[in-house]
Amino acid sequence: MKKVLPIVLAAILIGCGTSREVQMDLTDVQLVKIDTIQRYPNNNEKILTWQDDNHMSYVTFVPMEVYYAVGARMKVMMRR
Q: What is the pLDDT of residues 2-23, one digit of tens each?
């Protein structure tokens, strides 16, 4: 028991000491394109293409009942 206790304590301290945080930034994006796709059988969805100031494109899927206007701006979280 005396030999196992230091090993267990070291494992707990190492496990608690590692950082698993993800750093994010808020970025403005603009909706540039809306398409309709059939993602699953018998289920149509909209695919929204967003673009930021650095011309990076991002894609989101939304139900057909959700409406967005092309040119709409939104803030999204991105990894640093």
A: 677 777 777 777 767 666 677 8
